[in-house]
Amino acid sequence: MAEPILYGADYSVYVRIARMTLEEKGIGYELVPLDIFAADGIPAWYLEHHPFGRIPAFEHDGFRLFETGAIARYVDEAFDGPALQPTDPRLRARMNQIIGMLDAYGYRAMVWDVAVERLEKAPPDEALIAAGLRQAETVFKVLTSCKAKGPWLISEQLTLADLHAAPIIAYFLKVSEGRDLLARFADIQDWYARVADRASFVRTEKVA
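Above: the chain sequence. Below: its structure as tokens.
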């Protein structure tokens, strides 16, 4: 089999989720740089890979995918390596619930409304940041309520839920408000320290 190809930018949370999944499976891959915020815009050829012009997109032996969740599940199921999805239906449902919650309620609030707003806007919209922090607090409360005993979010097994949450939270922690909020949730802070120590996390960290 040819190595899979991942299109995207190393700054992207969702590209990092896909990369961490590939790393955890021990799969070699090619990262093709694609900056959707480039001054020249999105190249026309890329719309054949992702018709909505987002990142990442994925290709493996001529099979193309977009949407991070679909990519991560395909990688887990199509390649050898440690399983990243539980076989128990309730645990799998909990994994999917956490991923869905992060996509619907966590990513926008934590990454864009708090971290990007604080780091890149002058002046930042303090009302937007405050609202994002309230939403982030709810996300951490839900993660705490879902957190199973053991090292990972839903079980003794590292799953796609852990790999989905870690890059989103990592971006949130770029700002002091994010770090202060996480410090109030000891179980999630301990979990984050554990996942941040994994080789897949370290190898996919963007070097400033």
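The two ends are 34 Å apart (CA to CA).
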